[in-house]
Amino acid sequence: MNAATRYIAPAGLDPIMNRFFNMLPKLGISVMGSRLLAVRGRKSGEWRTTMVNLLIDEDGARYLVAPRGHTQWVRNLRAAGDGELRLGRKVEAFTAAEVADADKVPLLRLYLRKWGWEVGKFFDGVTKDASDEQLAEIAPGFPVFRIS
To answer: C or N terminus of the chain, fewer CB within 10 Å?
Structure first.
């Protein structure tokens, strides 16, 4: 699979589980830092939402990681450059800057430390214990955005 176009579509029970888990942030329930990401569609201009895990590094910088690859939310965020994080009635607007592949290694490792139990299946056997070289090799297939 080409890393620049890597995308793992929801399959099996994923769509049902996604609907359920997308409801939680709408109700104000965060599971380990999850939020509802809202981004305007690049063609329709309509708000599109999906649940994301908000990654916060040791310096307090905040990131969004796309474990399924170059998804629709990734493409929309690239086009829009901004979006909202929602939790219940709380709405936080943000701007996004995509992180270069060379800078993703520590972020992917931290992401796998926090949520490997949930998203590990999308990483094809790469874990938080992988070498820097292994993480650098997969980095192009996992878009990461710094948000502020």
So the answer is: C
pTM: 0.92
For residue 6, give both structure tokens.
Answer: 């890597």
DSSP state of 130: S
Selection from 148, 139, 144 nearest residue 53 by Cα:
144
Amino acid at 96: A
How far apart (Å, rounded) are the C-alpha atoms in residues 96 and 129?
Answer: 28
pLDDT tens sequence across 58-112: 999 999 999 999 999 999 999 999 999 999 999 999 999 999 999 999 999 999 9
